[in-house]
Amino acid sequence: MAQINPSILSADFARLADEAKAVQGADWLHVDVMDNHFVPNLTLGVPVVESLSRATKTPLDCHLMIEDPDRWAPQYVEAGAGSVTFHVEAAAAPVRLAREIRAKGARASMALKPATPIEPYEDLLPELDMLLIMTVEPGFGGQSFLDIMLPKIRRTRELISKHGLELWLQIDGGVSASTIERCAEAGADVFVAGSAVYGAHDPAEAVRTLRSLAEQATALAPWACAH
Questions:
Q1: pLDDT above 90 for 140
Q2: How confident is the model at residue 44 (pLDDT cuts 50, 70, 90)?
Q3: Which DSSP symbol is given to 111?
């Protein structure tokens, strides 16, 4: 089943609690954490995640675009995140970090920048609950979807199927009504959507529309039919 994770990077930061409520029905609330080092932007951190976790019943999916996630990621679990994603390009010991996140009670996820191939990390997949393929360069919201990521999504889905894993495959960047079907057909099943949700007149309806489009495309996808 397709999951839609609205990104609060596109929300009104002065009204985060209200913006979280505006997307009730979403599967997760996606929280982009940027440190102005790993990516050229600065967003929110642990205190805001703590506040958000108290303000919404929707579980938090924290995407850490930061240096030294080995040090910081466990604190986001303690702050209330139900899923924590670290970038493999920044992690010193990704397997150890994934195991620590899981041991603290959250889902462990690993992200890949557009230019980072999946194949060198095939053996790490069983250590993860989710893999995030960036479909834009990380660091800014509102970028256009990179079509050249579709083959990478397909290859990743093939590796997940090859090993018989119950691993969620998330994409983040440029997800909209015009791109989500292609991504679902290629193998993604968790979709981060920012401006496509928070830029809509009715964010909750936008979530329902995106989920419906993804599920229709998934139903016809060869990878899903093979299950």
A1: no
A2: confident
A3: E
Give residue 225's pLDDT.
Answer: 82
> Is 173 annotated as contributing to ligand binding?
yes
- Active site members: 32, 172
* 147 marked among binding-site residues: no
204: tokens are: 């909750």
Q: What is the pLDDT of residues 56-98, one digit of tens each?
A: 999 999 999 999 999 999 999 999 999 999 999 999 999 999 9
- Rounded Cα gap, residues 192 and 175, in angstroms: 7
Does the annotation flag 194 for ligand binding? yes
CA–CA separation, 212 vs 42, rounded Å? 33
Position 125: which residue type?
A: L
Q: What is the DSSP letter of 143?
A: P
- Nearest to residue 134, comparing CAs of 99, 172, 166, 81? 172
